[in-house]
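Extended Data, panel c. Modelled sequence:
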Amino acid sequence: MPHSSNDSRFLPGPHAPLIGMPVVVPLRDLVDSALNTVIERAAAEARLAAGTLGRCGDYALVGARVLSVLLDRPYVAVAGGEIIDCGGGRYIVLFPSRKARRHARKLSDLKDYHCWIQAEHGLPQGGTRLEQVDFTVRHNRQVAGVFGVPYLAADQDYLWEWQDVIVPVPAEVRLQLSANGNGGDWMWCDAVCMRLLHKYAQEHETLLQQLTADVLNQLADMIDARSAPGTLLCGKLRTVRQVADSAIGRLASRPA
């Protein structure tokens, strides 16, 4: 899986992770809220008709960079297909057709693709464990509405889980949906989607850097507002702001 689509190395890594593993739910909520606030603001400023719907690439690319900084390990943006469980025995498959993938020259040429974040963690006994993060689960109800499918599942803002504890897609459902290449997973990587996501990241590098810095600053503001002096979160506030300021400084020093 290509790591270059994340390319979080433009931000200096801290000597120790700002957030430890496993990330507790209150911190997950803060990271999700900071990222969503920044992406929604950017979509509003760009006057996107659909808002943040369909911006899973931005969520994944920026989110991967933010998590790489906070946890001091490589998180990568991944692109491919997805099965959405709408509840009541109804499912939606998001995966571009073979023809669409063959002729697409840029990410916006594709429809029905999905992007999320992954990280491989080494285990003490050897081997690795895959972590999956998807900050766009909040859009599932809207996606179902676009497809005209009733959405009866519980609303969630994000998915942040070990892959091996996520219940696989039922075999009978996979056969009915004829989703290619997923092997029982709800999300699966596709080489063409990955190539186009990488190209998108290269073409929008400056914007992605700015959004990453904005998310880190937004997160620092949230930590500042919710933590008391002397607490663990408050102790990390200055470091988060320094990382964000460093990113902004690098942007300002780039040649025009």
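The helical segments are 25-45, 56-71, 98-103, 140-147, 171-177, 191-203, 205-226, 232-253. This feature is highlighted in the accompanying rendering.
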